[in-house]
Design a protein that fits this description.
Layout (H helix, E strand, L loop, with lengths): L2 E5 L2 E4 L4 E8 L5 E9 L5 E8 L4 E3 L7 E5 L6 E5 L8 E9 L3 E4 L3 E6 L1
Parallel strand pairs: 2-11
Antiparallel strand pairs: 1-3, 3-8, 4-5, 4-9, 5-6, 7-8, 9-10, 9-11
Length: 116
């Protein structure tokens, strides 16, 4: 059974930093790509950052220059370094991983709360 579990969320003051991790289990295929999405309270889930197997990255305009996505190993395939956090960054962050064969799985999210 494939599982993705996010960690690293928490409460931080504006201007602070957090590093989110995404732990994977139950699958050993190569990874095509991965990414992070953000769901603010009462809003839809939106893309924050993605990374391909070739390490090409893309970011939402709102986080460019503040967040950095990176690849890890098979057990921890993707990270998100979040700097200069702002109250509007508050919400649940979800990781996803797309494995070879087109299988895509999502984690259940980790909550980030940024106080003003």
């Amino acid at each position: 059974q494939v599982r993705l579990v996010e960690s690293g969320g928490g409460l931080v003051q504006a201007g602070g930093s957090l590093r989110l991790s995404c732990a994977a289990s139950g699958i050993a295929s190569s990874i095509n790509g991965a990414g992070w999405y953000h769901q603010a309270p009462g809003k839809q889930r939106v893309m924050v950052a993605t990374i391909t197997s070739g390490e090409t990255t893309s970011y939402a305009d709102a986080v460019k220059g503040r967040f950095a996505i990176s690849r890890g190993n098979a057990k921890n395939p993707v990270y998100l370094q979040m700097n200069s956090l702002q109250p509007e960054d508050t919400g649940v962050y979800y990781c996803y991983v797309e494995w070879q064969g087109g299988m895509t799985f999502w984690g259940k999210g980790t909550l980030v709360t940024v106080s003003a």
